[in-house]
């Protein structure tokens, strides 16, 4: 009888399917339903410090009836609304821990150094099993170097890790000047896990109205390949846990991620499209595939086709369509 258990961030998961941070995980009812359908773990919707600040601003506008609020005005404002949003988040952690037995991973995105410290300490006290740091700096400042930008990630990680004993994962983007080096340095700093890669809101342009609009919110089923490449390249070169995310829509793409060396995967879009019941279908399909191939456990095939163990290691680093595609014809 194959078993789907896996270890992620030092936590035992009954299967490698984690529901990614999103609106799918923002209430206790949804979390219970996800567990009932077989989710291995949950990453709660991120708590955004910026959102709290925006809410404070809205309240100030309402109170002063002015379009602009001077930053100093906030000095006079009570911490009340700020605390309120945080308290609700902490209550969600406490309720989720009481209601389900699968691991609950909190997620935060902060702007100020104090809040990274304060929020993570409070989250640990509320009983979360781990913390995922959701941090991304869009490198648009022409006067900053890649190294300066990357230090923001390193500083936040070391600051948070100093404050709490919980396992800490960092959800990263692929946009770094030297991605392998960044991942290696995070691993050296004892990050407990890396989630690769976050998918971001992106703008689009409407050519009829000539307006900037919102790009497609959900991923496509072919989008998993960039994370597959990097999981495959890095998995046996670092010690921390790895979770693949973005574009993982089928049991086949989950199995590929594990073959490349992922300990777990994080899904959002496909669950928005198909509902929580799809988790049960995915786990059954993985189970059947393992039976068919004689694998007793996830460990039996995890990393079996990472770059160093594959029959064609160069394929992981191939980026140009060279001679193999010279005769490519689209029918
Ligand atoms: C509607 C929506 C809301 C999301 N909210 C968050 C969030 O609050 N924090 C976060 O780290 N990621 C968030 N994400 C990103 C997902 O966690 C996930 O990493 C990304 O969507 C890629 O996975 P997918 O291809 O399965 O959707 C969100 C994604 C979607 C579609």
Keywords:
331 residues; alpha/beta; TIM Barrel; two-stranded antiparallel ribbon; 11 helices; 13 strands; binds flavin mononucleotide
Describe the model.
There is one protein chain. The protein is an alpha/beta fold and 331 residues long. It has a single domain, classed as Aldolase class I (TIM Barrel), CATH 3.20.20.70. Helices cover 40% and strands 15% of the residues. An eight-stranded parallel barrel has the order 3-4-6-7-8-9-12-13, surrounded by seven helices. Strand 12 (241-245), helix 8 (251-260) and strand 13 form a beta-alpha-beta unit. Helix 4 packs parallel to helix 5 (146-163) and helix 7 (225-234) packs parallel to helix 8 (251-260). The radius of gyration is 21 Å and the shape is globular. The N and C termini lie far apart (44 Å). The model is unreliable at 67-80 (pLDDT under 50).
Helix proportion range:
40-55%
Strand composition percent: 15-25%
CATH topology: TIM Barrel
Bound molecules: flavin mononucleotide
Chart the SSEs and their pairings:
Blueprint: E1 6-8, E2 11-13, E3 17-19, H1 28-36, E4 41-43, E5 47-48, H2 49-64, H3 80-99, E6 104-109, H4 113-126, E7 130-134, H5 146-163, E8 168-172, H6 179-188, E9 193-196, E10 203-206, E11 211-214, H7 225-234, E12 241-245, H8 251-260, E13 264-267, H9 269-274, H10 277-293, H11 298-301
Parallel strand pairs: 3-4, 3-13, 4-6, 5-6, 6-7, 7-8, 8-9, 9-12, 12-13
Antiparallel strand pairs: 1-2, 10-11
Quick overview:
The chain has 331 residues and is an alpha/beta fold.
């Amino acid at each position: 009888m194959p078993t789907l258990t896996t270890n992620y961030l030092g936590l035992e998961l009954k299967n490698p399917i984690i529901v990614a941070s999103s609106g799918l995980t923002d209430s206790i009812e949804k979390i219970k339903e996800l567990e009932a359908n077989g989710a291995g773990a949950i990453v709660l919707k991120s708590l955004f410090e910026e959102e709290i600040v925006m809410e404070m601003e809205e309240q100030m506008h309402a109170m002063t009836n002015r379009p602009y609020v001077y930053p100093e005005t906030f000095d006079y404002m009570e911490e009340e609304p700020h605390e309120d949003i945080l308290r609700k988040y902490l209550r969600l952690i406490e309720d989720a821990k009481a209601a389900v037995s699968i691991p609950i991973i909190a997620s935060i995105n902060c702007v100020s150094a104090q809040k990274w410290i304060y929020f993570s300490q409070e989250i640990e006290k509320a009983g979360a099993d781990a913390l995922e740091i959701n941090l991304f700096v869009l490198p648009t400042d022409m006067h900053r170097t890649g190294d300066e930008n990357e230090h923001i990630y390193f500083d936040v990680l070391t600051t948070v890790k100093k404050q709490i004993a919980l396992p800490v994962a960092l959800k990263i983007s692929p946009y770094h000047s030297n991605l392998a080096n960044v991942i290696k340095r995070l691993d050296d700093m004892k990050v407990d896990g890396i989630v690769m890669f976050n998918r971001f809101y992106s703008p689009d342009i409407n050519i009829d109205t000539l307006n900037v609009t919102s790009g497609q919110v959900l991923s496509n089923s072919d989008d998993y390949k960039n994370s597959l490449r990097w999981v495959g390249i890095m998995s046996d070169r670092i010690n921390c846990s790895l979770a693949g995310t973005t574009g993982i829509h089928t049991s086949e793409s989950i199995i590929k991620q594990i073959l490349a060396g992922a300990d777990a995967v994080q899904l959002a879009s496909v669950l928005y499209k198909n509902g929580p019941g799809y988790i049960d279908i995915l786990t059954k399909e993985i189970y059947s595939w393992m039976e068919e191939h004689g694998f007793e456990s996830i460990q039996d095939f995890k990393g079996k086709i990472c770059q160093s163990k594959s029959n064609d290691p160069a394929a992981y680093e191939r980026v140009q369509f060279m001679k193999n595609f010279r005769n490519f014809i689209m029918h």
